[in-house]
Design brief:
The complex is a heterodimer of chains A (226) and B (193). Chain A is mostly helical and 226 residues long. Chain A is built from seven helices and two strands. Chain B has 193 residues and is mainly alpha-helical. The chains are: A mainly alpha (226), B mainly alpha (193).
């Protein structure tokens, strides 16, 4: 069962400047009208649900710095000019990426500049010719270099050989002198040894002769006895 | 010394260049403003942005505060204006606004991006707050603002009407419509839980 007064009465119920008479009439109606009292109870419950709100702590913020930043940003519209150019680094990066992806190359020649993509263009033949010329020049230069190095190496070898030979001759002469001195020394030593040997031989011969003489004397003596 | 007198003393010191007084003033109201923003925007990031915008507004206009009204009323007026501006900015940046059949003639746009809102994730494990945010998400921005000002800031219908530049009756109607919508969501939640 609905009540035609519910809407008006309940929106007045929350008014602060309701007169005492009006408040009494409203209370009386709410006592008599079940629909209005139920409706009021349900909206009051909803209001009560809202009042369950618990104060949230404010997240940390720098009270001076944040305000200064905001103030600063507002007072310096110049920075907006630079803000409007924020797309520039992104655009430059994109351009570089395209250059890399499409393998773009710029070649300057007599007729001006030419741009090619993916490394394939008419400039390839020109490039190949230039490469062949460069190779030929490099080869010629390398040959000249080798010849020069070879001649220098030859002269170095001759000088080295001469030096070695000189050194060898000198050392050979020294060696002969040393050998001669050695042989002479050995000869003198041998002669000395031979003299000693002969003297010993002579001494032993004398001993032998003396022994023989004694033997002869003995034999002679024995025969005389007989 | 009452809170109002303390506010005035801090304002005077801040105007004389005292960073300490300014910080104390900010600390005094930051939690209220942040929670106000959280309930209005539904997420912590926007609430922080709103809070900083509010204090920037206070910082710039502190010399204009005459003390005719309470500082808390003044700062919440700034918060309300900033929230409206933020909502307008977000509305411009996102898709076309949605309209509610229950709203009476006015364009009660939904808060942008709130359909994919995940209060549980954004608010951690505070289930009650997540539940409240889920209820508030069902309201249009104007209804949400009125509920915030009436239920959480305890403003009168006349004060809200002046803030929103609408008639007192419109405010009353919107508030009651919001409560009816909240009642449905609350009942659904109770059934599910």
């Amino acid at each position: 069962m609905s009540c035609p007064k519910t809407h008006y009465l309940l929106q007045e119920y929350f008014s602060e400047d309701l007169s005492a008479i009006a408040r009494n009439e409203l209370d009386r109606h709410l006592t008599d009208c079940e629909h209005c009292s139920v409706e009021l109870e349900s909206v009051l419950l909803a209001q009560q649900d809202l009042q369950q709100w618990q104060e949230q702590r404010v997240p940390h913020w720098d009270r001076h710095l944040e305000l200064y930043r905001q103030e600063h940003r507002i007072d310096r519209p110049v920075s907006r000019f630079w803000l409007s150019w924020q797309w520039l680094p992104t655009a430059a990066s994109l351009a570089m990426l395209c250059v890399l992806l499409f393998n773009v190359s710029v070649v300057s020649n007599d007729s001006g500049f030419s741009i090619s993509f993916a490394g394939s263009s008419a400039s390839d033949t020109n490039l190949n010719g230039q490469l062949a010329e460069f190779e030929q020049a490099q080869r010629l230069e390398m040959q000249q270099l080798v010849t020069r190095v070879e001649s220098r190496q030859d002269s170095n070898n001759v000088q080295l050989l001469q030096a070695v030979m000189e050194r060898a001759q000198q050392s050979t002469a020294d060696s002969f002198d040393q050998m001669y001195a050695y042989f002479e020394q050995q000869r003198l030593l041998d002669l000395q040894d031979m003299r000693v040997g002969y003297e010993q031989l002579v001494d032993s011969d004398y001993e032998t002769i003396r022994s023989l003489q004694q033997l002869v004397n003995y034999v002679g003596y024995q025969s005389d006895i007989r | 010394m009452s809170l109002i007198d303390e506010d005035e003393a801090l304002i005077a010191a801040a105007l004389n260049g005292s960073a300490y007084a300014w910080e104390k003033l900010v600390k005094r109201y930051e939690s209220k403003i942040y929670n106000h923003g959280l309930r209005l925007t539904g997420n912590s990031s926007d609430a922080m942005d709103l809070m900083q915008e509010v204090f920037l507004g206070v910082y710039r206009n502190l010399h204009r505060f005459r003390g005719d009204a309470k500082f808390s009323s003044w700062i919440f007026r700034i918060a309300h204006n900033k929230a409206v501006d933020m909502n307008r900015r977000k509305r411009l940046m996102t898709s076309s606004p949605k309209f509610s059949a229950e709203d009476e003639g006015d364009e009660f746009e939904k808060f942008p991006g709130k359909t994919d809102l995940e209060p549980e994730n954004r608010l951690g494990n505070i289930e009650q707050n997540a539940r409240v945010l889920k209820m508030l998400n069902e309201l249009s921005s104007d209804q949400r603002s009125i509920v915030e000002l009436k239920v959480f800031q305890s403003l009168s219908f006349d004060e809200i009407a002046r803030l929103q530049d609408v008639s007192t009756n419109t405010v009353k109607t919107r508030f009651y419509s919001a409560l009816k919508k909240l009642k449905v969501v609350s009942e659904e939640q109770n059934v599910l839980s």
